[in-house]
Amino acid sequence: MPQYVALYLQRDHERRTFRFEQAPLPLPSIAQSWLIHRGCPPESIALDPEWGTAPADEVTRALEQRLMSDGNHYALGWSYTRDDPDDWVTLATLRALDERAPSPFRVVVEEADIEAGTHTLREGGFETVHEALTGCDDRLSGTGKVLPPVRPTPSLSRPASVPKPVAPRSPGRSR
């Protein structure tokens, strides 16, 4: 079971009613993304540094920020949390909603070091759901901890070669 529940509550003061949505999610950054994309201001759901573990490095911070902002580009498939003190790990498989996305299947791995009070977050890219789930099985069995890199998104706006600068035309001269 995912370890977090995101709760989006909408109050109607005039009618004295409320509506809510909830979603069990495996990682805080995925829960924050779910809330942000329902209209919750990101600054209102920042994590309290006094609770939980802190990001161990800049790679973790950057991936958490990207998951928060781009999380709606992915669908959560499968997740697993193991809270074994010797191997505290959460795995989440994601599928890109854009079928043209590079590395359409992602595995996000969070490993917590409870004694140090930190966690790391890493991401691997896979071409098929089978490869992604096999990567998860390998991580859980201890046979593999290295995730394949995510293929970069090709830039469509950048030209393949840099055009040569064109000299400005002088007024009154014709070519």
Overall mean confidence score, pLDDT = 85
Q: Which regions contain 5 or more consecutive residues with pLDDT less than 50?
A: 156-175
Strand content: 25-35%
Please work out how many helical segments DSSP would assign: 3
Order of helices and strands: EEHEHEEEEH
Q: Give the % helix.
A: 10-25%
Number of strands: 7
**Rg to the nearest angstrom?**
22 Å
List the topology elements.
Elements: E1 4-12, E2 17-25, H1 28-36, E3 54-55, H2 58-70, E4 74-84, E5 87-96, E6 105-113, E7 118-126, H3 129-141
Parallel strand pairs: 3-7
Antiparallel strand pairs: 1-2, 4-5, 5-6, 6-7
Characteristics:
two-stranded antiparallel sheet; 20% helix; 175 residues; 3 helices; five-stranded mixed sheet; alpha+beta
Brief description of this entry?
The chain is α+β, with helices and mostly antiparallel strands and 175 residues long. The protein is built from three helices and seven strands, in the order ββαβαββββα. The strands form two sheets. The protein has a five-stranded mixed β-sheet. Strands 1-2 form a two-stranded antiparallel ribbon.
Overview of the structural elements:
It is a single chain. With 175 residues, this protein is an alpha+beta fold. The chain has one domain (4-45, 53-141). The chain is 20% helix and 34% strand. It contains three helices and seven strands. The strands form two sheets. The chain has a five-stranded mixed β-sheet with strand order 3-7-6-5-4. Strand 1 (4-12) and strand 2 (17-25) form a beta hairpin. Helix 1 runs parallel beside helix 2 (58-70). It is globular. Residues 137-175 are annotated as: Disordered.
